[in-house]
Amino acid sequence: MPASRLPPFSCFDGHRLVASGTPEVAALALKQLRVDNAAGPLLVFDNATGRTRDFDTRGSDAELLARVNEAFPAAVGTDADVTAEEAPATPRGRGRPKLGVVAREVTLLPRHWAWLAEQPGGASVVLRRLVEAASCAGADKDRQRRDSERAYHFLQAIAGDLPGFEEAIRVLFAHDRAGLEAALRSWPADVRAHALRLAFDDPADHADG
Fold first, then answer.
1. 52 strand-pairing partners
2. What residues have CB less than 8 Å from 54, skipping those under 6 apart?
3. DSSP 76-119
4. Cα 154 from Cα 204, distance rounded (Å)
């Protein structure tokens, strides 16, 4: 998941959110629920995908944490990273090196060149602006699709038997926040709040309590 305000993992006992945080936090919460013979179902969700993840909670807390750390090693810098950062900058020729501008051939129809010539800043500036706008629009669509899919996986696992499930999925994939809030209004508060956070990467629960 790209930079997100969501914690990496969340642990549920039935429809109740028990813990959210690192893999270690979720695994320890799951172990405690199993020790307490919680009613369940006991589910841990990877919030990057909305899919469930299981942990082997046998043995001591130390043994559990060792397995978790092996499965989810902490990110550390590599020698390659240090070398890249500390390597002296390669001398560059004239131009605009900080922008990383690359000159390549562009083929357009005469009317396109004529239109570009009339725009402020010249053809290069306008083309860069158009490409940037198109890439941003594509990124927004990709993010919406990713968020909808992870919320769907979460809801399918935890709420498939709740009333209005099919309508909730329909408005979810329509990216209709108001419609989704309405569809989830009667659902358990923790399920509703988590689904909205997954669908819209939002730290706030905007549904009624």
1. 45
2. 44
3. ---HHHHHHHHSPPPP--SS-GGGT---------HHHHHHHHTS
4. 18
pLDDT, one tens digit for every residue, the chain (209 residues): 344 578 999 999 999 999 999 999 999 999 999 999 999 999 999 999 999 999 999 999 999 999 999 999 874 333 433 333 333 444 555 555 455 667 777 787 788 788 888 888 777 787 777 777 766 656 677 888 999 999 999 999 999 999 999 999 999 999 999 999 999 999 999 999 999 999 997 543 333 33
Task: Indicate the pTM of the whole model.
Answer: 0.67
Q: Which one-letter amino acid corresponds to residue 158?
A: I
Closest CA to 59 of 46, 47, 68: 68
- Widest distance between CA atoms in the chain: 75
State the residue for tokens 């669908």: 199
